[in-house]
Amino acid sequence: MSYKYHLQPIYDIHLKSNLSYDADNNGSLARVKIFGIVGIIVLLLGMY
User: Which of 18, 26, 45, 46 has the most other CB atoms within 10 Å of its CB?
Assistant: First the structure.
């Protein structure tokens, strides 16, 4: 059994981490984009 250490950028940890020992419930970048667009639409509708 051997270990390999490497550095990972902070902005990749939650959405792009595919490590074997990592939790299975990583976020989805597509969902973040969809909710962001929906949020912008709601804010725009709230201005009128």
Answer: 26
Look at residues 7, 12, 8, 10 and name the one whose alpha carbon lies nearest to residue 29. Answer: 12
> Tokens 């270990």 identify what position?
3
By residue count, the chain amounts to 48
- Tens of pLDDT, residue by residue over 1-48, are 888 887 877 777 777 666 666 666 667 888 889 999 999 999 999 998
Q: pLDDT at position 24, please?
A: 63
**Rounded Cα gap, residues 17 and 27, in angstroms:** 9
